[in-house]
Amino acid sequence: MRPTGIWFSSFAAEARTLDTRRSRIWLAIGLAALVVLPLAGAPRLIGEMTNLYISLIAVCGLYVTVGMAGQINIAQSAFVGVGAFTTAKLSNLGVPVWIVIPAAALVTGGFSVLFALPAARVKGFYLALTTLAAQVMFPIVILALPMSWLGGLVGMPVMPPMLFGLNLGTPTGLYFLGLIFAALAVWTTYNLQASRIGRAFRAVHDNDSAAGVMGIPVTRIKIEAFFAGALYAGVAGAILAYMLQFVTVSSFTLFASVWYLGMLIVGGLHSPLGPILGVVFVTLAQDGLHNIGNAILQSGSGLGGGAVFAASSVVLGLCILAALIFEPRGLAHIWHQLMTAFRLWPFPQN
Amino acid sequence: MIDLLQILIEGALVGLVYGLVAISFVVIYRASKIINLAQGEVLVVGAFLLWTFSEGAAAAGYAIPMPVVIVLTLTGCVIFGWLVERTIFRPLIGQPAFTIFMAGVALLILLRGLTQLVWGAQSRSIPVILPEGAITLGPFLVNTRLLIGALFTVVLTVALHAFFTRSRLGLRLAAVAEDHTTAQSLGVSVKQAIAVAWVLGTVVATSAAVVLLSGSILSLEVAVIGFKALPVALLGGMESIRGAPLAGLIIGILEALCSAYLDPVTNGAASGLLPYVAMVAVLLIRPYGLFGWRRIERL
């Protein structure tokens, strides 16, 4: 809801995502702060932020598949893994980074189409089960392939990304790589909603039988939703591979997929703000738990590092359940409510 | 030839254990229309309860006789299932299928974290509950533990099938599996159905844990059996109790054949991939499984 006194003289102006001058200024300030952060920040903070950007790209993709098109995908981590392994393979062949990242995205997209094909026959959670198959089959296949192809059990080294003689493999370089692609991911996600295909996604999400009757090619749209979501996952995988410098299948588990989904649900499935808030919230919560865990470890009690990981699982599980039961629209909705209350103050909302 | 038959027998017995886990999926779905991805974790919780009352209690200085251990474990399961229903699935009645599916995913993370926090990540040994060893039948060796498990699966299937198709309560549960809103408007209590579903589901999963783990090692990785049994449940049809053991037989035998003949060629991947390839194939050819309900779309 907009406050009084804001008016538009054209539809295009009203339909903009950043509709007021103030919102554009805030975005510019925020972006500028993120750009200058590596100058001031500690190395650990830069690494954390890069991780956050990578998760954000992957969760934006998940938002397109799950939030917009309503197709459950529990293989996002496997898709990220496909992107990472493609990157590792191509970088070892000496392919430059500006080809590697789009190629990783496209390969991942093609891989996802393979598992989206059953959409022609099944719907709902049955379709989710084919993505489960993708997630479970991914490590089995990688481990069974010959060592020289994808590294098998050992994994594969990744050559650092070089662009115009500049090494992007440094923490700062990776930070900006992540920032640029995360910004791109958020920008495309916001704009996808207002596009023809975005509206088709939404129609399929709301009622696929009705969407079919209205002339939307439902099967094709579902496959395209998986493809689009996997493109993001491929990019996330590429940057993750450059960051890890060494990829193994153990980084891309079903559990990681569930984490991505959890971030999306906590953030909110119905607004592109959801992925941002969800990723930031879950990352902060996880970081806080790690700090508490480290403090407990240093104090010398009997708890192991596994307990910290287990505790963060419990917290995320409880967060998802709380979101589902009490606020299915997620943090994004709470944010919008807060903003409305702020604008209407001192008058009550209703 | 004898080798082949031996492989078939072993595959069939293991397959019936998969069938038993698949029944626990089907029971929950059949009574409440919930596909619970966390079934493997539920099984692990049951197994840890079993360990607590047997080895854990023995280590603490209270040796409990085995029949009492079983009774205690089953009581623990009933309470656990009821608790899950009460706290998670009851507040979600009437929500879209997507939300309920996601609640299952959240339960998966939550239970995995909780078991690790409460019991720790180290592996433990489960006492021998079912007799170990093998019976010789002519030239073949049959594992007694798996044989008893297989017989138990068959008996349980017949009993549960009778419950779901003959008893009044069972038929009410079937109505809930058809549609929550319709069932509720006809006076069928969805709450009661989901509670019954979860209690039955956890009890069946725990009995599967007994068959699977008697005399062997329990660790958090055991939960993978849940993802192996899901394709089995799907092949049999999510609504069909009798379909689950049959599909288990099919998958078990195919898996045994794969691991005997294809694994040497494919670097060990064939038997691991088989259940999931079968699952995708089933979804493509017969989405409702061998004996599931064919759903009709209305606009």
Question: Could you describe the 3D structure shown?
Answer:
The complex is a heterodimer of chains A (350) and B (299). Chain A folds into 2 domains: 19-252, no CATH class; 253-350, no CATH class. Helices cover 73% and strands 2% of the residues of chain A. Chain A contains 15 helices and 4 strands. In chain A, a hairpin with a 2-residue loop joins strand 2 and strand 3. In chain A, helix 13 runs antiparallel to helix 14 (305-326). Chain B is mainly alpha-helical and 299 residues long. Helix content of chain B is 72%, strand content 4%. Chain B contains 11 helices and 4 strands. In chain B, the strands form 2 sheets. Chain B has a two-stranded antiparallel sheet with strand order 1-4. Chain B has a two-stranded antiparallel sheet with strand order 2-3. In chain B, a hairpin with a 2-residue loop joins strand 2 and strand 3 (140-143). The interface between A and B is large, with 52 and 45 residues.
